[in-house]
Design a protein that fits this description.
- The structure is a homodimer.
- Chain A has two helices and three strands.
- By secondary structure, the first copy, chain A, is of the alpha+beta class.
- Chains A and B meet through helix 1, strand 2 and helix 2 of A and helix 1, strand 2 and helix 2 of B.
Chain lengths: 79, 79
């Protein structure tokens, strides 16, 4: 099975890379940019064959390694 | 308007962060993971009101700053 995990900063948490991108774009003359948000998308190949088991496993991966729950939230999709 | 830009490594280019994630997951006992791919997703808020103009502008941003054409490819969606 495949899992897609989207990890993004929680509302209100400053993402320094997004700020740097926005600033650099304006510096290059792209002054119509009024906001930048960044999400990390991970696509995992899994040996699991059961959808619910795969989702539970991926949520465990997020909690243990992939996301920092203090500042990030994540969404999991299994296909 | 909003633009979504998905930037990923070209086929055949090694992504060191994806390799590190896969290795760490296995190290934590998640041994059903057989592959990891990573995509950077940027959501841009734009002052443009014309769809085609916005897309052209975002492609220019990708070529000039957001993506490294040697190793990365990108997709742009305007909404």
């Amino acid at each position: 099975m495949k899992a897609r995990v989207a990890i993004s900063y929680r509302e209100g948490v400053l993402d320094p890379e997004a700020v740097a991108i926005e600033r650099s774009l304006r510096g290059l003359g792209f002054d119509t940019v009024t906001g930048v948000r960044r999400t990390k998308l991970l696509e995992l190949d899994l040996a699991e064959t059961d959808r619910a088991a795969a989702e539970a496993r991926v949520r465990e991966m997020c909690d243990k390694l992939l996301a920092n729950p203090v500042i990030e939230s994540y969404r999991v999709e299994i296909s």
